[in-house]
Amino acid sequence: MLNLDRYTVLLLNLLVRPQPQITDKTMIDLMNTDPILGQELITRIEDGNKLQQCGKVQQALEIYLGCWDKLPSQKTDIELFGGWIADCISDIYFYEKDFKNSLKWMKQSFEARAGDEETSSSIKLGAIYIKMGDEYNAFEWFNRAYSIGKKRAFQEFPKEYWDFYKSHSKK
Questions:
Q1: pTM recorded for the entire structure
Q2: Cα–Cα dist 81/75, whole Å
Q3: CB atoms near residue 89 (< 10 Å)
Q4: CB count, 10 Å around CB of 33?
Q5: How far is the C-alpha of 94 from the C-alpha of 112, rounded, in Å?
Q6: Which residue in 28, 63, 144, 154 could disulfide with 162, CB within 3.0 to 4.6 Å?
Q7: Residue 53, Cβ neighbours under 10 Å: how many?
Q8: Residue 144's closest CA among 167, 112, 110, 171?
Q9: How does pLDDT run across 42-101, given as a tens digit for each residue?
Q10: How many CB atoms lie within 10 A of CB 40?
């Protein structure tokens, strides 16, 4: 029987574990390439979230835009941060009923998550299109979310989006 210390076991586990699937897009892990910036961004985004929850949306937006500006040039290729920051910015514009800007930023968020089997960006894009009066695109984005997560994809969102999807999928 081999007697291996825990560091050797950890190293062996890292060497033999299955590698993550490679998507069409190579993502940059900022927490590995620049952990100081990564931690700073986390702190700033959380500060923005607190301001947003207190109704100080313009201050939160300034923080989020500042975080976006700090990202390296291929912003939507930055794992975690590209999608997270763009999502926060889109939410502010949605709240402010500036649906054109909300759509622009949510598309950035979706692009940053391309290859993920996540549904929230699709639901949010559908919601923005509803608010813009574009039922065709709203249905397309909701349908994408449904094809990945079925009804569960809609659970964290207002019931009106599920109702819209159900009523339009019968047509």
A1: 0.81
A2: 8
A3: 25
A4: 12
A5: 19
A6: 154
A7: 10
A8: 110
A9: 999 999 999 999 999 999 999 999 999 999 878 878 778 999 999 999 999 999 999 999
A10: 13
